[in-house]
Design brief:
Blueprint: E1 4-7, H1 16-20, H2 28-42, E2 48-51, H3 60-69, E3 73-77, H4 87-92, E4 97-99, E5 103-105, E6 109-111, E7 125-128, E8 141-143, E9 154-155, H5 156-168
Parallel strand pairs: 1-2, 2-3, 3-4, 6-7, 7-8
Antiparallel strand pairs: 1-9, 5-6
Length: 169
């Protein structure tokens, strides 16, 4: 059975993000190669990856070249920096599926680019990106921005395990 992974906010081709988020890279090329290598180190060709937005600032050819190198069946949920381009643009760049709206995974996990409003009585967890190095102080939110996971897609089992620990503890 394929594994499922989540990740967001790669910002491929966006040089200023290195300084904005204090990323440990000395160039765009170094950032790109490291993030592609870390993706492929954990994601197999048959695995599924939900990218929760802000994938690339490159043109279609540059974006497609990166997408083609990444393992797995790739679903993109559009982020604020992705929305200037159509769903068709992203599909032509190599994503297998593209959603303009949040998705529900496993009946319990709400996948979105930006954190969604959840009150403490809602029985859901929001897996999101957008806020990069920041983090909400609530067990209902899991930030999968690359800065929180060493620039590596995080396995669903890891996220689900966070909630099993809460139930057992």
């Amino acid at each position: 059975m394929p594994n499922v992974f989540f990740i967001s906010d790669h910002h491929f081709g966006h040089g200023p993000i290195i300084d904005y988020e204090s990323r440990p890279f000395d160039s765009i090329e170094h950032m790109t190669e490291t993030m592609v290598d870390r993706w492929n180190a954990v994601v197999g060709k048959a695995d599924r990856v939900f990218h929760l937005g802000d994938f690339s600032f490159l043109n279609k050819a540059g974006t497609a070249a990166i997408v083609a190198r990444l393992h797995g069946y790739k679903t993109l949920i559009l982020g604020n920096h992705d929305r200037g381009r159509s769903r068709t643009w992203w599909l032509e760049a190599g994503f297998d599926e593209v959603s303009e709206f949040p998705l529900v995974y496993g009946g319990f996990y709400m996948l979105s680019h930006e954190p969604m409003y959840l009150n403490k009585h809602m029985p859901y967890v929001n897996i999101h990106g957008h806020i990069h190095g920041q983090k909400y102080d609530s067990p209902q939110y899991v930030n999968v921005s690359v800065e929180h996971w060493d620039y590596t897609p995080v396995a669903f089992e890891t996220i689900h395990g966070l909630f099993r620990q809460d139930e057992e503890g």
